[in-house]
Design a protein that fits this description.
Structural class of chain A: mainly beta
Order of helices and strands of chain B: EEEEEEEEEEEE
Mean pLDDT of chain B: 92
Structural class of chain B: mainly beta
Strand content of chain B: over 45%
Order of helices and strands of chain A: EEEEEEEEEEE
Number of strands of chain B: 12
Shape of chain B: globular
Mean pLDDT of chain A: 94
Oligomer: heterodimer
Distance between the termini of chain B: 41 Å
Number of helices of chain A: 0
Shape of chain A: globular
Radius of gyration of chain A: 13 Å
Distance between the termini of chain A: 37 Å
Largest interface: A-B, 21 and 19 residues
Helix content of chain A: under 10%
Helix content of chain B: under 10%
Chain lengths: 112, 114
């Protein structure tokens, strides 16, 4: 299994600013992902964080808005750029190893 | 296209009675299927997974799910609900283009009455 630590756990941000969320996994994993959970909704995949190369984004998500880094096998960051109230969501980091996905506790972001 | 449908947005049961959370999936191939639980202000926890072995899958905390290919269903059950089971439950399938990428159902909120 893998334990995933995310920080911050929550934040309230002003519109137009950016927030960087950090994700640390306690073991080396093959794949890391970022998901978004909008209020009262299910999880949607934002992108795959690729080690040492550009992230792979899902339809509807772009690098300029959600830049992602993954400098090594156990660490990734997601930045939410130029925030608007519509970005208020829970952002979750996920790591996959052998047939199972693990999730961090999420970062609850409120944009005011 | 792949999809996951959770048939009930809310399910309310009395403590000690059975739980049934329904999930149907559509896929042109045989995906892996999971149930995750999300307690308030906590992360997602894996309850159980189906990966083409036994069709009846036992998970943690007394939960089970049965994979029925003919019905494309993967319903979650528990014989006796406990107050601590109150949470949001997500039925999840792997994507055809990557077994690491997941498609989440819309979620079912389980309420347990004393």
């Amino acid at each position: 299994s893998a334990v995933i630590s995310q920080k911050p756990s929550r934040d309230i941000c002003q519109r137009g600013t950016s927030l960087t969320i950090q994700c640390q996994v306690d073991s080396q994993v093959t794949m890391m992902f970022w998901y978004r959970q909008q209020p009262g909704q299910s999880l949607t995949l934002i992108a795959t964080a690729n080690q040492g190369s550009e992230a792979t984004y899902e339809s509807g998500f772009v690098i300029d808005k959600f830049p992602i880094s993954r400098p090594n096998l156990t660490f990734s960051t997601l930045t939410v750029s130029n925030m608007s109230p519509e970005d208020s969501s829970i952002y979750l980091c996920s790591a996959s190893g052998t047939g199972e996905a693990f999730f961090g506790q999420g970062t609850r972001l409120t944009v005011v | 296209a792949q999809s996951v449908t959770q048939l009930d947005s809310h399910v309310s049961v009395s403590e000690g009675t059975p739980v049934l959370l329904r999930c149907n999936y559509s896929s042109s191939y045989s995906p892996s299927l999971f149930w995750y639980v999300q307690h308030p202000n906590k992360g997602l926890q894996l309850l159980l997974k189906y990966t083409s072995a036994a069709t009846l899958v036992k998970g943690i905390n007394g939960f089970e799910a049965e994979f029925k290919k003919s019905e494309t269903s993967f319903h979650l059950t528990k014989p006796s609900a406990h107050m601590s089971d109150a949470a949001e439950y997500f039925c999840v399938v792997t994507r055809m283009d990557s077994s690491y990428k997941l498609i989440f159902g819309s979620g079912t909120r389980l309420l347990v009455r004393p």
